[in-house]
Structure formats: C-alpha cells, structure tokens
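Hey all, quick one. A colleague (J.T.) asked me to put the heme C job into the tracker so the inputs and the structure tokens live in one place instead of scattered across chat threads. No bug as far as I know, just bookkeeping. Sequence used:
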Amino acid sequence: MFLTLFLGCVPALAQPRGAVIASCAACHGEDGIAREADVPHLAGQNEAYMLNQMANFRNGSRRHPEMRFIARDLGPQDIKDIITYYAALPAR
Ligand code: HEC
C-alpha cells in the first residue's frame, strides 16, 4: 500500500517490479536510504556507477556474499529498472 503511493511519486521511466524493489528494500530501503550502518544509501547515486557495481558483484570482481547472490538472482532488465529507480530518488 505504502509502496503503491510511493511509486506514484517516481518518474514514469523507472518502473521496476514490486518484487524486485522488495528484495532490495530490506537492506537499502524503499526510499534508497539504508537503515543499517554497513549498508550504503542508493538514493540519487550515479546510475552508471551502480550498474557497474551490480556487474562487478555478479562476476565476483567486487566481493560481497549477499550482493553477489542478489545480483546473480536478477535478470539484466530487472537490474536496469531497479537501478534507474534508485538513481532517480532524492538523496538525503
Ligand atoms: C542483505 C542485505 C542487502 C540486500 C537485500 C541488497 N543489498 Fe545491495 N548492498 C548491501 C551491502 C551490505 C552493500 C555494501 C557492499 C560492500 O560493503 O562492498 C551493498 C551494496 C550495493 C550496491 C553498491 C553501492 C555502492 O555505493 O557502491 C548496489 C548498487 C546495491 N547494493 C544494489 C542492490 C540492489 C539493486 C538490491 C536488490 C536487487 C540490493 N542491493 C539488495 C546489502 C544488501
């Protein structure tokens, strides 16, 4: 419910599937602001940079067990959609 309202505020170009947002939001927040000290904020982060990081997590050149698993679980379109979504959110 909150998610639907929230998505209404996001520019039309970013339309990731709700399930994809949910799989990131547990750590990075629906608003891209992480709640845990060791998790980076994604809101307003550079899009090309984040896409590169996702590729690096996938191929293991950037090592992080959770992000590696998560990045490998998503298809390229889902990754692009969710990164576009986070990049468009206001940073804090
Ligand atoms: C279990 C918690 C968790 C989940 C779920 C999670 N992440 Fe992460 N993510 C992290 C942590 C922790 C890092 C920092 C990794 C490091 O220290 O190198 C990170 C790093 C990142 C980065 C790199 C940020 C930077 O500034 O370099 C991106 C991009 C990212 N995550 C995207 C996602 C996306 C997209 C999803 C959902 C598909 C997701 N994450 C789900 C914990 C998580």
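Adding what we noticed when we looked at it: DSSP finds five helices and no strands in the chain. Helices lie at 2-8, 18-28, 47-59, 65-73, 76-88.
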